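Archive entry. Fields below.
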Amino acid sequence: MNDLRLTLELYRIAVRAERQYRLNFLLMCVLGVVYQCSGIATVWVMLRTFDTIAGWTFGEMAFLYALRLLAHAAWAVPFHQLEFMDDTIREGRFDRCLVRPLNPFLQVITTRFQMNVIGDVLAAVVMFVLAVNLVSIDFSPVHILYLILAVIGGALAEGAAKVFVSSLSFRFVQTWAASRLADNIYLMFGSYPTSIFGPMMSWALTWVVPVAVVAYLPAGVLLGRTGDLHIPGPVAVAAPLVGLCGFLVAYRWWHYQVRGYQSVGA
Amino acid sequence: MPIEAAARRGGPGRNIPAYAQIIRSRMKTAVTYRQNVVFTLGIVVVQIFILSRVWTALYGAAGTVNGIPLSEMLLYLTLANLQGWAVQDSTVCSYLWERIREGRIAFDLLRPAGFIPQVIAQLVGSALMMTTFAIVALPVIAVIGTLGAPASLAAFCLWLVSLLCGIGVAVMLNLLVCLSAFWTTEINGTMMLFSLISQFFAGVFVPLSFFPGLLRVVAEHLPFQATTYTPVAIYVGHLEGADAIRAIGVQLVWIAVLALVARLVWSRAQHRVVVQGG
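PREDICTED_STRUCTURE:
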């Protein structure tokens, strides 16, 4: 409990530091919104000429996209600092995290606060409200509960990959390239029905790099499209669980890799 | 060497050896940081793969949509993404922004060669090297995406001209983004926004001929289509004959207009340079 209190306090300080630069704050928020909405703009233009993408209408695509954005935002708000792990290590700031009496993982994620994640949240919420109006889902309490679990599971699934990439920085000097690649894989593959990439890729995108579990599988379940998913319906329902397992494995791996850390001696 | 002779004589060509040197250095820099190039190229390869699959799914059973057969569409997407990547190197702007921030820009301003030509030389060097990397990567691209011959011999010749003009427009646009560094404290956000918007309106994800109504009118009046859409559409035979020549004319007009804008922006930017300490 003390750890949680400390973590929240560190977040508050990080946000305050960032609010000093107002124009930058605004620019980064706008960037977050434009960045996250550019993908759906492309889908919208495509579906002006065509009716569906592999049977998914624009409304359904928007819902899939919104679900991915929600999961991404749910990951990014608390954890996005992991992306800058390699800077922290290269500049010798990780030494501090090891001597302080708080889990180093929690210290890393509270170092700074990048304002563009606020844009990510805004984009996610607006997209979701718009998308829900385009599809016909009757939200029963069970649906809402599943939606919440799906967002958390999706956040953890994206987190699994990000935590894994950040653990590489204990061994390699620069990992921003790998981190950007992971980001792009989740952004680009995650925004379309996984089945269009063929059976091999679909398998890899579900069990090796858990992209499909972020939005495609839960969206399929919520939209009642379990018939045309690439895995059986009951397995698709368990998608949030896959995210959780992936994250736990990656998190254990991260702590295991801390042992390989060698200070740069700054 | 006629160039060196010109340099000794003075006159308008006197700085040409300096520009050639800047171009060479920038090309060497790109080679030094090749792991970054390989990585951004990796993202483009993934993008080509995804777009090819998405468009194949969109076409479904339809053989031809809007007068474009699927095979031509896949060739268009592959080339547009590759070319769009080659003219979109952000390292020059980051480099310049750092020099402005740290005050080292003063040395660039003191040099006998003009500042704007120096930046243009940097951008040309980067575009040349990126194009070379793109050519080297062609075997990989052929496996992931779709490569193919140009529509005709005429299309090929016009494409070469249009490609050069496209690089010219892209260099001018990048120059403007670089100059924005004189006003902002942050350049990464600007560059990312620019890259997203320019890719979208350059027709990298969806060719301009698929844009609906008003959006198409907007896209046609923006300079971004002149960087990528025009040359690639000529290559695949979507723009032919008089249309192709008119499109190249539009590219040339954009180079002139953007050069004029850059001149204006630069005359204002000069007054903003404050070198701290030094």
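CURATOR_NOTE: Chain B has 13 helices and two strands.
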